[in-house]
Amino acid sequence: EEIEKIKKEAEILQKKMKKMKIKLLKIKSFIICPLEFNQKTKNQSKIQLELFFIKKIEKKFLKESSKVLFLCDRVGKNFIKKADRSHFPVALSSIFGKYLREIFIKKQNQFFQKICPSIRLVSGYRDHLTKKFIKETQKIREKINLPDVCFLRKK
């Protein structure tokens, strides 16, 4: 049932992209270690954080291709406020990023639930359940030698 729903939504997306003459060439992503994130973003404003990630993404991906790069609030070299509301490719990249995050959180939940089945599934956002999850997994993380600096993001 869920797979059929995804297939239907994918068909709608393909038709919309074809109508708008948008061709998806490649999707790429990368993971940044919480330790690196925390070190490089300490005492940074939101704009500075965005620039940090944009520079990291450009360094990693733009050397491979001169194609236009779409990010959540950016098209090519231009910033556009809330671009995901007015530019379909930007919305698509935003959705892709959120989807990857959901996959990661699901895998993280599954990992800890295998060790301790009573641990509740969490969203990974800074809510009370996630805070409880962090406390409940502390001893497990210590046992498997996963330091807080490699598990928790500060911002």
Rg computed from alpha carbons, rounded to a whole number of angstroms: 19 Å
Assign an overall shape.
globular
Task: Return the structural class.
Answer: mainly alpha
Terminal Cα span: 37 Å
Instruction: Summarize the main sheet.
Output: 3 strands, antiparallel
What ranges have pLDDT less than 50 throughout 5 or more consecutive residues?
none
β-strand percent reads: under 5%
Q: Element order, helices and strands?
A: HHHEEEHHHH
- The tally of beta strands, per DSSP, is 3
Q: Which percent range fits the helix content?
A: 55-70%
- Provide mean pLDDT, rounded: 79
Strand order, sheet with most strands: 1-2-3
- Count, helices: 7
Question: What features would you describe in this structure?
Answer:
There is one protein chain. The chain has about 160 residues and is mostly helical. Helices cover about 60% and strands about 5% of the residues. It has a three-stranded antiparallel beta sheet with strand order 1-2-3, with helices on one face. Strand 2 (about 75) and strand 3 (about 80) form a beta hairpin. The radius of gyration is 19 Å and the shape is globular. The termini are far apart. The model has no long low-confidence stretch (mean pLDDT about 80).
Can you lay out the helices and strands and say which pair or pack?
Blueprint: H1 2-19, H2 34-41, H3 46-62, E1 70-71, E2 74-75, E3 78-79, H4 83-86, H5 88-115, H6 128-136, H7 138-143
Antiparallel strand pairs: 1-2, 2-3
